[in-house]
């Protein structure tokens, strides 16, 4: 269990949910949170994905309609809005973020800097 030391409000709604093999259009890497890349799905919805989950071929053919990248694994970018003092269960960690679940069952990613695990 962890206590929320600093409130966090989700940044993007709706969240981007990708499945392994989904086509993606990759964008820039995140300067603030290293290891994350902006990606857009086939519907035009964009959000930050772990760069390691984005397969960008080095030899993208320019004369086809093939997507420039694909998701390597399933990922859901849902963020969790939390208030200072809330208690959450951390179920996964990735690149400075923790996937948390509240006692009432709400779940999503929260920046590690907002959590006190002691």
UniProtKB/TrEMBL annotation:
Protein keywords: SH3 domain
Superkingdom of the source species: Bacteria
Keyword RNA-binding: no
Pfam families from the UniProt entry: SH3_2
Domain SH3: 64-118
PROSITE patterns per the UniProt record, alphabetical: SH3
Methyltransferase among keywords: no
Official protein name in the record: SH3 domain-containing protein
